[in-house]
Amino acid sequence: MTYRALYRKYRPNNYDGVVGQDMIVKTLKNAVKEEKVSHAYLFSGPRGTGKTSVAKIFAKTINCMNPIDGVPCDECEICKLIDAEQTNDVVEIDAASNNGVDEIRDLKSKINLSPSICKYKVYIIDEVHMLSIGAFNALLKTLEEPPRHVVFILATTEMHKLPLTIISRCQNYNFKKITEDQMKIRLDYIVKEEQIKITNTALYEIARISDGGMRDAIGLLEQLYSYTDNNIDIKDVELLSSSVSKDDIAKTIQNIVDGNLNDVFKEVDIFYQEGKDFIKIAEDIVVFLKDILLYKKAKKFFKENYSYNMEKHQDLINKISEEKTYLYISEFNRSIQDLKVSTHPKTIFEIILLKLLDVNTKKETVSSEEEKEVETEVIKIKEPTKKEEVYKEETRVKKEILKETTTEDDFLPFVNIPKYKKILINNTLAKAKKKLLNDLKTKCSQLSTFLINKDFKQAATILLDGKIVGASDECIIWSYQYDAIVERADNLRSEIELLIDNMFSEKYKIINIVEEDWQKIRPHYIKIMKEKKKIDILPEISEEEIKKPPKPKKRSKEIEEAINVFGEDLIEIK
After folding, report:
1. 109/258 same-domain check
2. How far apart are CA 335 and CA 352, in angstroms?
3. Could you give the number of structural domains in the chain?
4. CB neighbours (10 Å) of residue 410?
5. What is the percent of the chain where pLDDT is above 90?
């Protein structure tokens, strides 16, 4: 008998085998029960989440001779023919290799023919975003008004590449990534059926690194089965997937925190010699740092929901502060894209490490550097006298001026952004609503549909480069990785706010901020809220107002005295 790959062998042929898409399955079942079958469906979502499998099951269900509660019987002649792929009434088309106008015209010439044995003729077009513009245009009219016996099911991993005219003609179903726990349950079933010997830890690692794709997880399991002679443990998974163990990740972070430059780079060389993927290492470091934060903030939750024993890294957990953890996450996260496009990822990875090691060194000396800054002259004597009393008077005046300047405007001094933005961010966080934030994030899935709209294309492109990090009823804080994108977003703010109005049906002010600044601001306000302090609402100022030249400061008594002692022509106020 011909060997079948595990992912094909265990592809679900009924809804019971579909993992992680309960809402979609329920909706499709109800459509059949209530006889409300549409003429066109669009299934979108990440690879390996069940789009094509559900399309085939749905095609079987609507043609089943004896469906029960919206589920195919799997026993009638039609069910068996569809399962065996022996009917021409269910047609699967790969748009990646059949993406031209001629192929779609050929399809159009055949759809008027009645089904041979089924009730519906079903066309499943996989990777539909690969169709050419001409092919989309040829498909449009047919998709809008197909014959009554035809049902289209379009599947895509990149919905943003589809024309709005196609999307609007379909019922849309968004397939989500499969959770690690859901994936683990399915893998347990396959392992039992195939009598594969594998540790529980290794199964969880397969689920984790598959990133929500069931097909990828089953494929990796099959590779491991062939590689290990049916005795799989966590080290085999790490070796075959080019990932690094959590212990090695923890060791790398520990060496960065401790400033052990030699040990850090020895470890990088080992990773390189073992053929590890530096992109995956950076991603794994971000995940591990997130786990540290979660463990610190919700230890009980972590222990109940995560199988990993974080307690063995207690020394690292005690040493690394929340502020430093956020900094490390930010640095590795922003560098992942550089690693993906670089021809020398090891070099880029080493540069990240050097930067973080340098940050540690700077942190240790920050106090002395701040003191030097504080001691910078505020009043400069153009022609200094050597008399002792002159120096004493100069020092006294400098201290007084320093006192005034350090207390005058110390609002969020650790970020260099315009004051009007600081005030808007402050007021947004004072009135922030978590539910609203989550709702807006969910609605952002519609953003990609505006990429083909000539009025909103630029604004949508910019917004897709960032993410929502805070929201109130009046304002949304949008974070971007680079200053250049923030500048572009500020320049297109009116277009962006108009797009947001169209998408959310509400008017919002948009505050654009670079991710690095947000990672400094966020902990500051979290600390305020932890201390159960109220965030004061500040009077807002416009961007134009902040650009006005400041009013001259009123001279203090001490400055006036200094001028009287040295003369106004000898005093320069910095």
Report:
1. no
2. 7
3. 4
4. 9
5. 7
Backbone φ, ψ for residue 317 (5° rounding): -60, -40
Domain that includes residue 89, residue range: 6-174
Grouping H, G, I as helix, E, B as strand and the rest as coil, residue 137 is: helix
Per-residue pLDDT tens for 18-38?
888 889 999 999 998 888 888
Helix H or strand E segment including 503: helix 493-504
Check: CB of residue 507 under 8 Å from CB of residue 494: no
Pick from 176, 95, 172, 177: nearest CA to 136: 95
- For residues 147 and 283, state if they share a domain: no
Q: Give the per-residue pLDDT at 510.
A: 93
Residues 77-91 as b/e (b if ≥16 CB within 10 A, e otherwise) read: ebbebbbeeebebbe
Specify which of 78-82, 482-486, 535-539 reaches the highest per-range mean pLDDT. Answer: 78-82
pTM over 0.70: no
Q: Which helix (H) or strand (E) holds 528?
A: helix 515-530
Where helices occur in 129-245 by DSSP H, the ranges are 133-144, 164-167, 180-194, 200-209, 214-228, 234-241
Cα–Cα distances (Å) from 525 to 470, 519, 536, in that order, read 12, 11, 11
